[in-house]
Write a structure and sequence with these properties.
The protein is α/β, with parallel strands linked by helices. 34% of the residues lie in helices and 16% in strands. It has helices at 10-21, 34-37, 62-68, 91-111, 147-151, 182-201, 227-236, 256-268, 287-298, 324-330, 338-347, and strands at residues 2-5, 26-30, 53-56, 74-77, 118-123, 131-134, 138-140, 167-169, 205-210, 212-214, 242-243, 250-251, 253-255, 275-279, 285-286, 306-307. The strands form five sheets. Strands 3-2-1-4-5-9-14 form a seven-stranded parallel sheet, with helices on both faces. Strands 7-6-8 form a three-stranded antiparallel sheet, with no helix packed on it. The protein has a two-stranded parallel ribbon with strand order 10-13. Helix 1 (10-21) packs across helix 8, helix 4 runs parallel beside helix 6 (182-201) and helix 7 packs parallel to helix 9. The longest helix is centred in the first third of the chain and has 21 residues, at 91-111. The two termini are 31 Å apart.
């Protein structure tokens, strides 16, 4: 029996289906937060495979977690608030759901003598800005972005030593963590808590650092939705997607089915695969590239994406992944085609919001 917390959510529901299709029994623990699911009275939430056992409850409640763990061999922890949210007023909710919830889950696992595998849904946001190289000073960490630079549309980071332009590079898992918004800070804390739990108990922990995940059953256009979902919602409404900054932000867009496969690999490999792994397509693209691909796929009369120059201070400029460690150690390589994935996403059902 596998427990998937947050298993009724966007990524979690795909993990659940992948495990079920592989012949495993799955129990889901999910609070069904309206920000991710919308309001629904359905017995089975949209997107959740009806073959799974559903327990509606809070991962932050020890009694509920203990009930959910009955008969469970391995745990896949997907439950979390995601996205940048609205503003700093969200800080307590992110810490409550992401960090306190994880702490209660880990404490309950320790108290019940859990001896299986623990797979954590982490995120590329723990890196903050990606990896950059200065022609003179090598790999450097750029300073935090300044409002005056962003207002002047100076979006590219510069060398913190000499001020020269930097070249972005794929970021490996051993890069220093540098979370630059509340959500990122809570995801890094989840990793720290899980590592402490592993050292105390000997339970192998795998942290999967998802890059920009897209695909069927994404949440609709809310402050907690991904950029692909926000762009699609605009196109459906006959509006041009509004691309922030100059559209040149580099990301790695990975299909949710690839992400689900990575989770199944980590949960079922012949021997545990502890540590952190980038889960990505391995092919970086700009946010503008993604907006244009989705616009083409939707064949809408709406105008082409608009580059606005707007920004969010909590965003980073470039962050894309090295896929090498996941391929060599976890045996994971993304297989979903980007253009086909965007064409599918253009007409796929979304959830709630």
């Amino acid at each position: 029996m596998f427990l998937v917390t947050g298993g009724a959510g966007f990524i979690g529901s795909h993990v659940v289906t992948a495990l079920l299709d592989a012949g495993h029994r799955v129990r889901v623990l999910d609070l069904l937060l309206p920000a991710a699911h919308g309001s629904t009275d359905a017995a089975v939430p949209a997107g959740l495979d009806p073959r799974a056992e559903l327990l509606v409850g809070d991962v932050g409640d020890a009694a509920t977690v203990e009930r959910a763990l009955d008969g469970v061999e391995h745990v896949c922890h997907q439950a979390a608030m995601v996205g940048l949210g609205l503003d700093i007023d969200d800080i307590a909710a992110y810490v409550r759901h992401n960090d306190l919830g994880t702490a209660v889950l880990l404490r309950t696992l320790a108290r019940t003598g859990f001896a299986g595998r623990f797979v954590l849904a982490s995120s590329m946001v723990v890196y903050g800005e990606g990896r950059y190289r200065c022609a003179e000073h090598g790999v450097v960490v750029p300073p935090a972005r300044r409002i005056e630079d962003l207002d002047a549309r100076r979006f590219e980071p510069t060398c913190s030593i000499c001020g020269a332009p930097l070249t972005p590079e794929a970021i490996p898992e051993d890069a220093p963590a540098d979370p630059r918004n509340v959500y990122a800070a809570t995801k890094l804390q989840q990793e720290h808590l899980a590592r402490a739990f592993s050292r105390e108990t000997g339970v192998p922990v795998t942290s999967l650092r998802y890059h920009n995940v897209y695909g069927p059953m994404m949440p609709r256009d809310t402050p907690y939705a991904g950029v692909a979902s926000i762009f699609r919602s605009a196109l459906e409404a006959g509006r041009a997607p509004r691309v922030f900054e100059d559209g040149g932000q580099i990301r790695d867009f990975v299909h949710v089915r690839d992400v689900a496969r990575a989770n199944v690999l980590a949960l079922t490999a012949d021997v545990p695969v502890p540590g952190a792994f980038n889960v990505c397509s391995g092919t970086p693209r700009t946010v503008g590239d993604m907006a244009r691909a989705l616009h083409r796929a939707m064949a809408t009369d709406a105008t082409a994406p608009i580059v606005t120059g707007e920004y969010r201070l909590g965003d980073v400029r470039h962050v894309f992944a090295s896929a090498e460690r996941a391929a060599e150690v976890l045996g994971f390589t993304a297989v979903e085609d980007f253009d086909a994935g965007m064409a599918e996403f253009a007409v796929a059902p979304l959830r709630g919001g």
